[in-house]
Design goal:
By secondary structure, this protein is mainly α. α4 runs antiparallel to α6.
């Protein structure tokens, strides 16, 4: 399986849907009993257990449905979806940690290095997803790099749309 369309249907589309649904959870404070910071000191108040639980479970279900719907030959799609959901969140944590150490509040932007942090904010999870997807032997390194850019561009585009629709508060 080496079609970028198939990899997009496995990695990008499910996470786009999962994260959009998660933004709705955040906006309307649904499942608020899980809205507990993982570590407010290390990562800030916005990295919560709700995000981890929701993204892992829902992404597993959406990857499973996507693979079945588009007849993509993939062994254990729900497990891969859970791994990708976990990876997405895991690779956001170092950036949050670095921002807390620099005194940048949750959801705030660094003014002096704002372009650097904006790029990191929109590409950290894309890097992790591409790396893990490659490591699990689903793509070669060239396809992983292409997937990184597709994931990053999708994250930027979807963030702009969600802000415009007032589902997300800031880019």
């Amino acid at each position: 399986m080496n079609s970028i369309l198939q990899h997009t249907l496995i990695v990008v589309l499910p996470l786009l849907l999962t994260n959009t649904l998660h933004m709705l959870l955040v906006k309307y404070a649904w499942l608020s009993f899980f809205n507990i910071p993982i570590s407010e000191k290390l990562f800030g108040k916005n990295k919560t257990w709700r995000g981890f639980v929701f993204l892992i479970i829902v992404n597993a279900l959406i990857v499973f449905a996507s693979v079945k719907m588009f007849s993509i030959p993939l062994y254990n799609p729900a497990i891969l979806g859970a791994i990708l959901g976990f990876t997405y969140l895991l690779f956001e944590l170092p950036n949050s940690f670095m921002k807390r150490k620099l005194g940048i509040g949750p959801g705030e932007k660094h003014q002096r290095y704002r372009y650097f942090f904006n790029w990191i904010d929109k590409s950290d999870s894309a890097f992790g997803l591409s790396l893990v997807y490659w490591y699990l032997d689903h793509v070669d390194w060239k396809m992983a790099i292409l997937l990184y850019f597709i994931c990053s561009a999708t994250h930027i585009g979807s963030s702009l749309i969600l802000v415009r629709l007032k589902i997300k508060s800031s880019f």
